[in-house]
Amino acid sequence: MDAKVLFKKALEQATATAKCIDAHHFKNATPCTDWDCQTLLNHVLYELSWVPDLLEGKTIKQVGTKYDGDLLGKDHIKNWQQAADAAIAAINKADLDKEVHLSYGDVPASSYINEVAGDLLIHSWDLDQSFKCSLVIEPELAQALYDNIFPRKDEFASSGLFGKPFDVPEDARLQTKLLAIVGRQEPAV
Asked: How many domains does the chain contain in total?
């Protein structure tokens, strides 16, 4: 799947999740054990906010602390939508072959866009878990994300940014396999 299409579809699902979150959910636990719902939502908004600057060619140093702190404010839905709109505008005009300067090195914009899309989807699933909902990732998105992550599963596992991967049955559904390689287990139904 094209990186721009993947991002747009991932952002749609993430936005739907963000709009379901109320302030009374903020202190709920998430599968990201160090982060409650509020902290995780702020993290995802933080990642989303960087998209225009990085696709514009700025370095991490140039962006600096611009997005540090509370990005949710008193109206997290409005703030989310503003960041989402800015990110989509940047994605629409992005040259997928242009280098993006990340903390771990320079990568093509297409790789960065895929990475952010994956972060949006996985953390949307995490956020939904915080209020006892279970996001069903669209099958084509789950396939695209799985195809992007699986070849790098060892790199993801050693990064410390994800839970420890675990094995699932070969005949498990794709979303189950995807979540397993980033250390998440779907709740029993």
From this structure: 1
